[in-house]
Design brief:
By secondary structure, the protein is mainly beta. 14% of the residues lie in helices and 55% in strands. The protein contains three helices and ten strands, in the order αβββββββααβββ.
């Protein structure tokens, strides 16, 4: 079935004209030149995952831990609503860690694996005060908060290794452990889901038709960063105002 096509007759357009005009008249005059925008962002998460280790006389397992995660994403925002602005972000970040594993029946594993999160943030923000920035244009300081949802990979700890090998001391004969473990942690069916709330504060500066954003954000959500109930992020973005 092809895409649905909507056709508006002249009568319908006439009926819609008055409400549309009224909406534009009620919008704040200073925002009429950029009702919304879409842009790309760089994200840097601040947290620490410590080394994890386990073992006995028959196996050893050590994860190197890692500090922070980085990457980026896409965001959209609406500046046309009186009193508040709305923002939606779709982003990912990740970090690398070293992993070693040894037991009597397979070749020792010494490899690097990745931890990643995929997240959606929905934020309502309010301008605290405006800024006049010479040679650039207007700027504003915003504060806000909202809700978020996440999917994160599992770390290759004892629980994960046991689900793959069974008996850590004797399991894995003939297995390509590095490939099997990579496939396991990258399979989204094995990812962890979580949600929470967040607060953020930052600067928005208009440069011609573009908007530059720099924000600090605190995310309060369990089951996202291993062993932590919250983490902070700094994100910077460049958006085209439309």
């Amino acid at each position: 079935m092809g895409p649905t096509t909507f056709k508006f007759g002249g009568t319908v357009m006439k009926r819609l004209a008055a409400p549309i005009i009224a909406v534009f008249l009620l919008l704040p005059a200073q925002r009429a030149d950029a009702l919304f925008g879409i842009g790309l962002k760089y994200v840097s998460d601040s947290f620490s995952v410590g080394e994890w280790t386990d073992g006995d006389d028959f196996f050893t397992l050590t994860g190197g831990g890692f500090d922070g995660a980085q990457l980026g994403g896409l965001f959209v925002y609406v500046d046309a609503i009186p009193f508040i602005d709305l923002e939606a972000s779709f982003e990912t970040s990740g970090g690398l860690y070293d992993l070693t594993f040894d037991n009597p029946v397979i070749d020792p594993l010494d490899a690097q694996f990745g931890w990643a999160r995929l997240s959606q943030y929905y934020t309502a923000r309010k301008k605290v005060f405006g800024l006049g920035i010479p040679m650039l244009g207007g700027g504003a300081i915003h504060v806000g908060g909202g809700i978020n949802n996440h999917q994160t990979t599992k770390l290759a700890d004892k629980e994960v290794m046991t689900s793959i090998l069974g008996d850590l001391a004797t399991g894995g004969a003939g297995m390509d452990l590095e490939k099997t473990l990579t496939d396991f942690v990258e399979n989204k069916d094995n990812w962890i889901e979580g949600s929470g709330i967040h607060v953020q504060a930052g600067l928005q500066v208009k440069v011609v038709t573009f908007n530059v954003f720099v924000n600090y954000r605190l995310t309060m959500a369990e089951d996202v960063v291993p062993g932590a109930k919250s983490f902070s992020s700094i994100w910077a973005g460049l958006a085209l105002g439309l």
